[in-house]
Amino acid sequence: MKNSIRATRQLFTKPFFISHPDGFTLIELCAVIALIAILGIVLLPALAGTKPDPRAFQCLNNERQITLGWQMFAADNNGLLPPNDYPFTTCYWTYANKSQLKNWVVGTMEQVIDASYSRGVLELQDPNTLLSPYVTNASVYHCPADNYVDARSHTIHARSYSMNSAVGTVYWSASNSGTPGSSAGAGPIGSPVGQGWLGGNSWSPSTTGPWLTYGKMSSFTRPGPANTFVIMDANPYSINDGNFAASAFAAAGRTYLINLPSGLHGAAGVISFADGHVIVHKWLDQRTYTPQGSPGLGGTATTLQSPDNPDCFYLAPITSAPR
To answer: How many other C-beta atoms lie within 10 A of the C-beta of residue 56?
Structure first.
């Protein structure tokens, strides 16, 4: 009995491996090192493509904060969305009656003065930037991957993000604003934005066209808040005012780009949606984020025919829906 107990004790106290009295040989060590080196050579290229981009995470956070501020504005205004019809060729910095230019963000990168980083930051903190009480840190509006230096102002842009042209209300273009360039058909202040570039190949001021536009949180019926984009990081070559002109129309052989999205996150962009979620979306076609021909530095809305661009087929249904 004692011998049995002793044998059991030894079984549970001895290590569960066979000792190698002489250790590893030099040949065995070299073989292990060589194997690790080979695995490294094979795996590193694959792992390089999956390395997290901290700038993309920061961009995601930026858009999340802006979209939250946009939702808070609506909550404080009975569901009414902020204006998104800034006149994109109008320099805010030098405009005499700035109260006529109230918008979710004021200023335009189309004008060299507004494109200056120092002035742009002040414009993002201006009371006429209606999200300024909700997004108090102006640096949130700048994507950390956006290192583009404007050829005219010789500084980076203060703002890297724009809002879906189908989303928002009118202020500047409202018929009762009494300002030159306003649209008599826009309706009163607080009406939903017009059709803009939603048709793809031309701009329309109409508010009764074939596409839905969204002036209240309750108006996101189709394609729904989880499937309607609000904020996108815009290509620094084509950004101008706070309005991201996009086409809701896409058909075989007829796809259009107006404002270009950014591809600064490894050929991907960051997009937020009306329900508040934010994604990094990989673009499939280089034309989507690469300026073609003369880019119009600092932004002009130029329709680019981009036939059968798969990214246009992605963007169209998350921009708007047929009435």
So the answer is: 20
Contact present, 177 and 90 (Cβ < 8 Å): no
Query: Which residues, in sequence order, are CB contacts of 21 under 8 Å at separation 6+?
Result: none
User: Residue written as tokens 């934005």?
Assistant: 193
Residue 320 confidence (pLDDT) above 70: yes
For residue 205, the Cα-to-chain-centroid distance in whole angstroms is 25
Return the structure tokens found at 276.
């508040």
Within 10 Å of residue 193's Cβ, how many Cβ atoms?
A: 26
- HSE-up (13 A, CA, CB side) for residue 274: 27
> Residue 301 to residues 14, 16, 216: CA-CA distances in angstroms?
78, 73, 26
Single pTM value for the model: 0.81
Rounded CA-CA distance 121/160 in Å is: 12
pLDDT class for 176, splitting at 50, 70, 90?
low
Give tens-digit pLDDT for 121-148.
999 999 999 999 999 999 999 999 999 9
Residue 261 in contact with residue 269, Cβ under 8 Å? yes
